[in-house]
Specification:
The protein is α/β, with parallel strands linked by helices. It contains 17 helices and 15 strands. It has two domains: 7-179 and 347-395, Adenosylhomocysteinase-like (Rossmann fold); 186-342, Rossmann fold, CATH 3.40.50.
């Protein structure tokens, strides 16, 4: 039995789901293919994902392929209650999610999704897989395989695999080019700044924006912040990524130095305490703190709370002001959670089209191939990534060259010299 906030919101949810679907032509094509081929017939899928209009497109595609789906939220602040209602009332999925639920409710919903006894699991941050391996080991024997679609989740899965703790194969959907290159770079880059602007209505032109982490997400953020007229400072622990940022013209500093300069701070590292008490102690009055990494540990919110003599909650939507003893005010967005989903709507549907196409095709591949895979972290087959890119280009009316037979022979021969 689903647990959602308000079933009467279904009509509004359907309208928004259909709007997003217009920008997801690749997933629509796969849905039509799944409806004809039924690659997931009779399978149960449990998913822990952001419950947004774009995710609804994936759920409908899995259902078209014959799967029954139970869905829990991967972040309490990202759940769209109207989308959840539409999935239950109009599309026949089981959904366990309410916007703004507390930590206890969050994990209760994950447990409810697992109670369906899934054959496959789809995760966004590894909380569902972690729960299976800690609290619900009784269900491990029935789970055939899974997918993970975040950098943070893949890191956790690799740690589990190294320790021999992972009990079934999981595919790192996050690591496909059509996911991390576009979802992380273009999606996170745009939607994070969208969330910050919606929450604060600040002008980014002329501001110093400090971006912690220069992976695909950080790179996308830096490009877009610069495009809006910001001076961008990057902090990094990886010499290669720091060099990349430097060669692209961004200032690179340790956070201890950047903390004094910044007007807006955005964390996208996947690690904890990236902005800590020492950094908070030297920040400017009015500095804005936002996180776009998966978990709410990158900004030390507890330290910020301890330092504050007064807190003004909700001065704007998803905006809290912490007043320090010396009178400085630091502004925390979305409680330190994912600002692009809590204060905005997450990635544009056109970006999620590719990510969820990867996810859907990988599920179909797993249904046929899981028995041959070991309990480890596996890559998505290259042909799936290529097919998604091909379909996306076709939907955009973009044509590319094809190799001639002579070119194919040349590339596959070592005997032809200069």
């Amino acid at each position: 039995m689903s647990d959602i906030a308000d079933r009467s919101l279904a009509y509004e949810g359907v309208k928004r789901i259909e709007w997003a679907d217009r920008s997801m032509p690749v997933l629509r094509q796969i849905r039509e293919r799944f409806a004809a081929e039924r690659p997931l017939d009779g399978l149960k899928v449990a998913a822990c994902m952001h419950i947004t209009t774009e995710t609804a497109g994936l759920i409908r595609t899995l259902q078209a392929g014959g799967a029954s789906v139970a869905l829990a939220a991967s972040n309490p602040l990202s759940t769209q209650d109207d989308t959840a209602a539409a999935l239950v009332e109009e599309y026949g999925a089981e959904v366990f999610a309410r916007a703004g639920t507390d930590r206890e409710g969050y994990y209760a919903h994950i447990h409810q999704a697992l109670e369906t006894g899934p054959d496959f699991v789809l995760d966004d941050g590894c909380d569902l897989v972690n729960t299976l391996h800690t609290d619900r080991t009784d269900l491990l024997g029935t789970v055939k395989a899974g997918c993970e679609q975040t950098t943070t989740g893949v890191i956790r899965l690799h740690q589990m695999a190294r320790e021999g703790a992972l009990k079934f194969p999981v595919v790192a959907v996050n690591d496909t080019d059509t996911k991390h290159m576009f979802d992380n770079r273009y999606g996170t880059g745009q939607s994070t700044l969208d969330g910050i602007v919606r929450a604060t209505n600040t002008l980014l032109a002329g501001k110093t924006v400090v971006i912690a982490g220069f992976g695909y997400c950080g790179r996308g953020l830096a490009e877009r912040a610069r495009g809006l007229g910001s001076r961008v400072v990057v902090t990094e622990i990886d010499p290669v990524k720091a060099l990349d940022a430097t060669m692209q013209g961004f200032a690179v500093r340790p956070m201890a130095e950047a903390a004094v300069e910044g007007d807006v701070f955005i964390t996208v590292t996947g690690n904890r305490d990236v902005v800590n008490a020492d950094h908070l102690a030297v920040m400017k009055d009015g500095a804005i703190l936002a996180n776009s990494g998966h978990f709410d540990v990158e900004i030390d919110v507890r330290a910020l709370s301890d330092m504050a003599v007064e807190v003004h909650h909700g001065i704007r939507p998803q905006t809290d002001e912490y007043v320090l003893a010396d009178g400085r005010r630091l502004v925390l967005l979305a409680e330190g959670r994912l600002v692009n989903l809590a204060a905005a709507e997450g990635h544009p549907a056109a970006v999620m089209d590719m990510s969820f196409a990867d996810q859907a095709l990988t599920c179909a591949w797993l249904a046929a191939s899981h028995a041959s895979l070991s309990p480890a972290v596996h890559d998505v087959p290259k042909e799936i990534d290529t097919e998604v890119a091909r379909l996306k280009l076709a939907s955009m009316s973009v044509s590319i060259d094809l190799l001639t037979p002579d070119q194919e022979d040349y590339l596959h021969s070592w005997r032809i010299g200069s």
